[in-house]
Design goal:
Two copies of one chain form a homodimer.
Chain A lengths: L2 E8 L3 E2 L5 E2 L2 E8 L9 E5 L25 E2 L4 E2 L4 E5 L14 E2 L4 E2 L9 H14 L5 E7 L1 H12 L4 E7 L7 H15 L11 H7 L2 H14 L2 H7 L18 H16 L2 H13 L9 H5 L5 E7 L7 H13 L6 E6 L7 H4 L5 H9 L2
Parallel strand pairs in A: 5-8, 5-11, 6-7, 11-12, 12-13, 13-14
Antiparallel strand pairs in A: 1-4, 2-3, 4-8, 9-10
Helix pairs in contact in A: 1-2, 3-5, 3-8, 5-7
Chain lengths: ~375, ~375
């Protein structure tokens, strides 16, 4: 499988929903496979909150493959021997596209908290612009889960003729207060980190004392990604240090898991970018310009594949079911498909239980 | 209704499960109604993580009544014109009983993080000792929800002849990793508070900059007390400052609710006590000395009333159902009762939807 990693620099302005504007911006992206001559074999993969362009394959010397490698590759459901697959890093993310850590040309300084708040529509608008630069005006499919599923829905509603098939997994049409509340913990933990001071400017101090706020915030994320059942299976009530049972600092295995993942994450993800992407997730409501879910979904011309997961407590299946029923009400039953995958993995299932749904994607992509 | 608030000082040692010992300790408690001559009209109310002795009634000038006032009072389900009701502050809690803020006689200094880790069994052992001092060796009922329900179960299993009826609401026989994970956020947020420094010794600094860690931790608690449905109903996607939609600091109503409750709580609850009580909750497993749930429940001689709430994500109904089935398996079907109350209030339902279950308690207590 041929992997290419690139960055595209735009000198034309990008007008944002907030009224603010990027006079310049750039997008990092990765591609898998080869674009055919009539550019009819394109599949767009949209990533989740903390994802990157690196969806599949391994770079030289890399121990871990891309985040959706079980789905994407030669001979896999998203078959890179047939399709040209592209994954674009979302604006605000620290993995290569324009984000709060970049220099704002108008001031010559890093944006930091002066970065504009973006919405999913802005992110997708920029992606469509990039695809257009590459000569691509219609794609075989857009596929994404969680925040990536929000992008997929945005493609479906705001660019009705852009994609033949839309796959939205483990997502919602509008972020509910339950998910906003989980994000709130992360946001508050980051902002009350003593190193935050309005924008984490003192890099020496951070290097010394770490980013505890981001670590605590990530723990809340991990709870929302799992489920009571998956935690029981993974950890039970097992204790890490049995002689520490009556020590205030003694930990259960689930504590250790959260400690490890929290601290680890704080070393690989910028907390300012996290604030902006959490905000973007909170603001997501694909009905906002249309008055109702039905009016919003009436825009869709693509075939829509909705896949939810039974144990998902972040974006529970009933929200996707609502979308499905809406399409049925709109008389689009031949263009909509819904399934709830039985899983104990909670929200994470769209990443870890690929074998439970990849055949659906394969069947659609293989059809001529 | 006659309310009395007292503290009892013990000069005899209390041996703890950890192997540590209080050479002296004290318990604060509140009573409602009058003890009859043969001391046969006693009801014990056990409080939850952040509760206090003040379960019912109003002190002079007090705007808000006790935390279970809708259940307890003259003519109410727990009728204080008939019963003598007692609510004892748990050890480790900051509301009057021995806790980390007290002076350790062996050092002459506050315990702080040198306070011993307690388990529910220790807490109940101390309560039984107090009741014994008051000449009470058998009670009509023990009634408690959440951590109070754990105490009620502990009375049932470890003091089989102590109570005629046990009411355990919104609780579990052993804290599951899901609940431990929510506590972990609070514990980590408290410990990474810049003012923590191993025990919050600098009171001037705390008065100045607050207890952000406790506030963030409490937010996680509030998520676990509510449910997706109750949040939708309470907040929806309503925004607080509509002109702040694209401001990074702009908040949804659910954000404001969490901010308000987090900060408010940090002013009324000591974070060190919180660490100890969260640990106590995490350690709770009433099967630990018995090898199995069945063996543990085989100890019970009281009538056991188990009440769960459909939307409770902290201690989901299936855990209480398991206890019920266990009692049935033990051939105790005439001594066990289980019901799941339909509620959108989540875990909080045991406090706020009293009218949905108080008739069960009333019927049992009224029977002769």
């Amino acid at each position: 499988m041929k992997i290419q990693t690139k960055t595209h620099y735009f000198d034309e302005p990008l007008y944002l929903e907030s009224g603010r504007v990027f006079s310049k911006f750039h997008l990092a992206y990765e591609t898998y496979g080869e674009l055919n001559s009539d550019k009819s074999n394109v599949i767009v993969i949209t990533h989740a909150l903390t994802g990157s362009t690196h969806a599949a394959g391994r770079y030289e010397g890399e121990s871990k493959a891309g985040w959706w490698d079980s789905l994407i590759g030669d001979g896999k459901a998203v078959d890179t021997s047939k399709f040209f697959v592209i994954c674009i890093n979302i604006l605000s993310s620290p993995f290569g596209s324009t984000c709060p850590l970049d220099i704002d040309d108008s001031t010559g300084k890093e944006y930091r908290t002066r970065f504009p708040v973006l919405v999913i529509s802005d992110v997708v608008k920029a992606q469509v612009r990039l695809l257009s630069e590459l000569g691509i005006s219609r794609v075989k499919a857009v596929i994404g889960g969680s925040l990536g599923g929000m992008q997929a829905l945005c493609y479906a509603i705001e660019y009705p003729n852009f994609a033949e098939n839309i796959f939205a997994l483990a997502t919602t049409y509008a972020t509910q207060p339950w998910a906003i509340a989980f994000n709130k913990i992360a946001i508050s933990a980051i902002k009350s980190d003593p190193n935050f001071k309005g924008g984490y400017y003192d890099k020496d101090e951070i290097a010394k004392s770490g980013l505890n706020g981001m670590a605590v915030g990530r723990m809340a994320g991990h709870i929302s990604f799992l489920s009571p059942a998956s935690m029981n299976e993974k950890f039970g009530r097992n204790y890490v240090e049995t002689d520490g049972l009556y020590e205030l600092d003694g930990r259960f295995q689930v504590d250790r898991y959260l400690d490890y993942n929290g601290v680890n994450f704080s070393h690989r993800f910028d907390p300012l970018c996290y604030l902006y992407i959490a905000k973007m997730m909170n603001l997501f409501d694909c009905t906002r310009h249309y008055g109702s879910l039905k009016n919003a979904m009436a825009q869709i011309r693509a075939k829509l594949f909705l896949i939810s997961f039974s144990g998902d407590i972040l974006f529970p299946p009933n929200l996707m079911e609502e979308m499905y029923k809406c399409m049925i009400d709109l008389g689009a039953k031949e263009r909509v498909f819904y399934t709830q995958i039985d899983s104990d993995y909670g929200h994470d299932a769209f990443l870890v239980e690929v074998e439970k749904f990849d055949y659906i994607i394969k069947r659609v992509l293989d059809a001529r």
